[in-house]
Amino acid sequence: MKIGTIGTGSIVDGFLSAASQLQQVSCTAMYSRKRETAEPLAQKYGVATIYTDLEGLLTDTAVEVVYIASPNSLHYEYARRALEHDKHVICEKPFTSTAREAKVLMELAMSKKLMLFEAISLIHLPNYHVIREYLPKLGPIRFIQCNYSQYSRKYNQLLVGETPNVFNPEFSGGALMDINIYNIHFVMNLFGSPDSVAYTANKHANGIDTSGVAVLQYPDFIAECVGSKDTAGMNFVLIQGEKGYLHVVEGPNGCRSFWVKLGEEAEEVNVQTQANRLYYELKSFYDMIAGQDLERCYELLKYSYSVMQVLDRARQHAGIVFQADQSQP
Predict the structure, then answer these.
(1) CA–CA gap between residue 149 and residue 140 (Å, rounded)
(2) Are the C-beta atoms of residues 23 and 2 closer than 8 Å to each other?
(3) Do 3 and 26 form a contact (C-beta atoms < 8 A)?
(4) pTM, rounded to two decimals
(5) Of the candidates 140, 142, 138, the residue with the CA atom closest to the CA atom of residue 246
(6) pLDDT at 329
(7) Sequence-separated (6 or more) residues with CB below 8 Å from residue 203
(8) What is the rounded distance in angstroms from the CA atom of residue 328 to the CA atom of residue 133?
(9) Which of 58, 64, 209, 288 could form a disulfide with 293 if both were Cys (CB 3.0 to 4.6 A apart)?
(10) CB-CB contact of 58 with 66 (8 Å)
(11) Pair 76, 329: CB distance under 8 Å
(12) Is there a contact between 63 and 28 (Cβ–Cβ < 8 Å)?
């Protein structure tokens, strides 16, 4: 599987590191508006070709899959163009800016029988899969708490009057889309879409959320999702049932280990062997592409669409408006 990448941030470094661990996967080309920003990664991972024109990457016949790690607001455009060039697509989270964008991409991929994935690593992790197996032991679930708080270096720039992409409504930024999305994926992949969604946010003067609390109401329990980029915090997930609880250490991103407490008995679980969390998602994507498993791919695609619908509802509740809301496809 030959991949072409869009973007040069740290997540691309992690992705290429994961690719280097899979013999069947290689990166053959990179796109960056400025060649000098791509050169360090290209040299590090032996990528032969750098394009400064996106059309060059998309028309490269050696590239089978396009991996997109651009600012959030560009995900839709880049993914659409890649699909139109008959490329499979792996798109970083958040999948798109809006649910309407996600629906257009989903319908396009299905019409062309192409693979399209949201690169949300959490749901592909072995520990996360094992959590699903432990849920019945907890009894009826009554409450879930998730906290993923990580003080952003970019927040310092915001405080002095700059507007980095991650805190810019024009680029579909904010704490909900960048960090709380892990909590929401954690809950929704296990329990499906909630009955109602509320989001209360700390907002900057430009209207973007720097931190916030999303409350997902299910028929029999409440899930509280805290995401913060303006403070650090104790990251964790706590699933509380009538017979016990499950504690994910260090929060959802990476899902490195978890404890199960049933009465007086406590058990620690960790079945992951790879330090790079992106390895597992890339292996999963490769298996689906190699096996032409469109059914599984489209199940995940419909799930990503349902998450985007919840994110839309959360933003609407908090009064957070993106530029993408004004220019829908």
Answers:
(1) 28
(2) no
(3) yes
(4) 0.96
(5) 138
(6) 74
(7) 209, 210, 318, 320
(8) 40
(9) 288
(10) yes
(11) yes
(12) yes
Angle, to 10 degrees, between the axis of helix 126-134 and the axis of helix 181-191?
A: 50
Those residues with Cβ within 8 angstroms of residue 189's Cβ, 6 or more apart along the chain or in another chain: 122, 123, 128, 303
pLDDT along the chain (329 residues), means of 10: 96 97 96 95 96 97 97 97 98 98 98 98 98 97 98 97 97 98 98 98 98 98 98 98 98 96 96 96 98 98 98 98 88
Q: Which long-range contacts (CB under 8 A, 24 or more apart) does 57-62 make?
A: 57/4, 57/6, 57/29, 57/30, 57/31, 58/82, 58/85, 58/87, 59/85, 60/4, 60/28, 60/29, 62/2, 62/28, 62/29
The answer to whether 233 and 154 are in contact (CB under 8 A) is: no
- Copy the structure tokens of residue 57: 């990457």
Distances (CA, A) of 234 to 147, 185, 256, 293: 7, 19, 15, 39
Question: Which tokens hold the place of 329?
Answer: 């496809």
The 10 Å Cβ neighbour count of residue 38 is 23
Cβ(244)–Cβ(255) below 8 Å:
no
Describe the strand order of the beta sheet including 222-228 as a list of residue ranges: 196-203, 209-217, 222-228, 141-149, 236-241, 244-249, 257-262, 265-269
Distance CA 176, CA 81 (A): 26
State the Cα–Cα distance between residues 193 and 128, nearest whole angstrom: 18
Give dist(CA 9, CA 21) in Å, integer.
Answer: 19
User: In whole angstroms, how large is the CA radius of gyration of the chain?
Assistant: 20
Q: Where are the beta strands (DSSP E) in 110-193?
A: 116-119, 141-149
Joined tokens for residue 105: 């991409």
What are residue 240's DSSP bridge partners?
143, 245
Sheet holding 116-119, edge to edge: 49-51, 26-31, 2-6, 65-68, 88-92, 116-119
Which pLDDT belongs to residue 327? 81
- Residue 224 pairs with which residues in a beta bridge? 145, 215
Q: How far apart are CA 278 and CA 69, in angstroms?
A: 13
